[in-house]
Write a structure and sequence with these properties.
By secondary structure, this protein is an alpha+beta fold. Helix content is 25%, strand content 32%. The chain is built from 5 helices and 14 strands. The strands form 3 sheets. A 6-stranded antiparallel sheet has the order 3-2-13-10-5-6, with no helix packed on it. It has a 6-stranded antiparallel sheet with strand order 9-8-7-4-11-12, covered by helices on one side. Helix 3 packs across helix 4.
């Protein structure tokens, strides 16, 4: 995985820090986690850690689009800046969530740490809820990113059985808006977006 990639985010969250395979198999315990799920017209994807629409989707595209590059937090950060500059504002309509407005630079559903190095050992990945983050502009998004390096990102709690629903409009074919599921980017489609937690859990051997 990339030095600042999602495999590290999820693994560090699940195991409370870095750990080798032998330690995980010897001392880990079986736990269950419900992945996040997004439906957007023909798109149906799951994510164990987080789903991001907007800036993080564009950043994932820029990072994943590089070839023959060794993992580097510094290089990833530089490429992410390119993604921030190229990202487009998400315009939504028929919003069914009072926390969302008509324009956002990022909408994220968070189950784990996101680039944080000091998260507590008991993440919401094993809870029946997730955090909804919806910064409206670049400054708000940047402040969330900085605070996320030091602590758990706090948003609005969305419980199991609840969904976040809204419609995306004005998504240009030439300049699409990207989303990402655990760091894998995809192009958002005009139309309804539904984000929730799946009812079917997955098994994880964890040290936390």
């Amino acid at each position: 995985p990339l030095a600042s990639g999602t495999a590290n985010d999820i693994a560090t969250t699940v195991h409370g820090g870095t750990a080798n395979i032998s330690k995980i198999l010897q001392k880990g315990r079986l736990r269950q986690a419900r992945p996040l799920r997004i439906k957007n017209e023909s798109i149906k994807k799951n994510a164990l850690g987080y789903i991001g629409l907007g800036i993080t989707g564009q950043c994932a595209k820029e990072i994943n689009g590089r070839e023959n590059t060794k993992p580097s937090i510094i290089k990833d950060s530089a490429v992410s800046m390119k993604g921030i500059i190229k990202s487009r504002t998400i315009r939504i309509k028929n919003n069914k969530d009072s926390q969302l407005s008509s324009k956002h630079s990022e909408i994220a559903a968070v189950n784990t740490r996101m680039a944080s190095f000091l998260w507590p050992k008991n993440p919401s990945i094993f809870d029946d809820h997730f955090q909804l983050l919806s910064p409206k502009g670049y400054i708000h998004t940047a402040s969330l990113a900085v605070s996320g390096l030091k602590k758990k990102m706090e948003g609005r709690k969305i419980n199991l059985g609840q969904s976040v629903e809204f419609e995306i409009e004005n998504n240009s074919i030439r300049r699409p808006i990207y989303g990402q599921c655990d760091g894998e980017e995809f192009i958002l489609q005009n139309g309804l977006v539904v984000i929730n937690k799946t009812n079917k859990p997955v098994n994880i051997i964890a040290l936390t």
